[in-house]
């Protein structure tokens, strides 16, 4: 495995079967593949969202990106800028990965584990606590912290240290949290990203996707989409297929649907409006884009009325 500050992280033709012990078999007797011929390249400082239905292979891929390799893995992994050591990974259930009794202890354990120099220890603990907004809760036991605060402590511990972490993986880190706590975790991940950390963000929540965000969509262990979120929701040229009837000779299949996920209401509406000729590409994703799209449609209506 090669390593270099500016080299991309690269997985090539990675295939993973069930673990050697207890290999999972499909009903027809074939060995169950958790990932199939997966190619992924991640550049330094990128934000990559991984989406997909339950069991599609998101966590398997996320763990491999973090450097935690399964027993039966074929293909190549070049960690590049991510370095030789495993990257920090934050999981869905914060309590499952917390060793300490309080945020301060948790961060201290993580620093000890990573071999941080003793003379910098206290300052690094305080910096990590402050970055996560947990300075006032440093010595509170987990029971008195919300799920979001526990998750923030897990991220703070995973990323504590003098060095900026090149890559951090968050595997459905917000799925157990309410909106306020989710926003807090997202704020911390965004702050890490602004400092140049590459963030791999596994999520089931499609409302977390921004139009230009890179989205890798998984289905049955394969990548069915690797492109931006707008293309993921609405499809691109690559997703145009022959239509069912002569009225619609061509139709665009949303990669979101191809991944076996339900298209959220607003994107479904946008596709329908495009089909009716009332909305053009690029179709809206954000609230601001929807506002502009509504204005455009209002103008179109007024023009129609004037022509008549
Ligand atoms: N240790 C394991 N040994 C064998 N098979 C496994 C193991 N872990 C996961 N699998 C199987 O691999 C497939 C992919 O699982 P994975 O956890 O990566 O999916 P996921 O998309 O993250 O799912 P979820 O959203 O439910 O967490 C699933 O069919 C799962 O049953």
From TrEMBL:
Main location group: membrane
Record's subcellular location: Cell membrane
InterPro entries listed in its UniProt record: AAA+_ATPase, ABC_transporter-like_ATP-bd, ABC_transporter-like_CS, ABC_transpr_CbiO/EcfA_su, ECF_ABC_transporter_ATP-bd, P-loop_NTPase
Keywords assigned by UniProt, alphabetized: ATP-binding, Cell membrane, Membrane, Nucleotide-binding, Translocase, Transport
PROSITE patterns: ABC_TRANSPORTER_1, ABC_TRANSPORTER_2
GO MF annotation list: ATP binding
A Pfam entry, by short name: ABC_tran
Residue ranges annotated for the ABC transporter domain, each copy included: 11-245
UniProt xrefs under SMART domains: AAA
Membrane-related topology note: Peripheral membrane protein
The UniProt record lists the keyword Transcription: no
Leader peptide range in chain numbering: none
Family designation: Belongs to the ABC transporter superfamily.
Name used for this protein in its record: Energy-coupling factor ABC transporter ATP-binding protein
């Amino acid at each position: 495995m090669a390593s270099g500050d500016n080299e991309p992280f690269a997985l090539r033709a990675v295939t993973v079967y069930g673990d050697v012990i207890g290999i999972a078999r499909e009903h027809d007797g074939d060995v169950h593949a958790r990932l199939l011929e997966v190619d992924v390249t991640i550049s330094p400082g990128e934000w990559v969202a991984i989406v997909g239905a339950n069991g599609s292979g998101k966590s398997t891929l996320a763990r491999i990106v973090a450097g935690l390799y399964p027993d039966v893995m074929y293909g190549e992994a070049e960690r590049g800028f991510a370095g030789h050591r495993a990257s920090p990974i934050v999981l869905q259930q914060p309590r499952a990965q917390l060793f300490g009794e309080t945020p301060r202890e948790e961060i201290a354990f993580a620093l000890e584990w990573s071999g941080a120099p003793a003379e910098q220890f206290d300052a690094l603990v305080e910096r990590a606590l402050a970055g996560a907004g947990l300075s006032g809760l440093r010595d509170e036991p987990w029971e008195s912290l919300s799920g979001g605060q526990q998750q923030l402590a897990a991220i703070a511990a995973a990323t504590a240290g003098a060095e900026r972490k090149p890559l951090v993986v968050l595997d459905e880190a917000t799925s157990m949290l309410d909106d306020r706590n989710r926003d807090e975790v997202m704020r911390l991940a965004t702050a890490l990203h602004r400092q140049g950390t590459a963030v791999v963000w596994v999520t089931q929540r499609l409302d977390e996707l921004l139009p230009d965000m890179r989205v890798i969509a998984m289905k049955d262990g394969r990548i069915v989409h690797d492109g931006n979120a707008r293309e993921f929701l609405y499809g691109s040229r690559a997703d145009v297929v022959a239509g069912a009837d002569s009225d619609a000779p061509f139709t665009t299949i949303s990669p979101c649907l191809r991944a076996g996920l339900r298209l959220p209401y607003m994107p479904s509406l946008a596709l329908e409006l495009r089909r009716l000729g009332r909305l053009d590409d690029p179709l809206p994703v954000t609230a601001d884009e929807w506002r502009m799209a509504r204005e455009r449609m209002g103008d179109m209506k007024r023009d129609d009325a004037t022509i008549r």
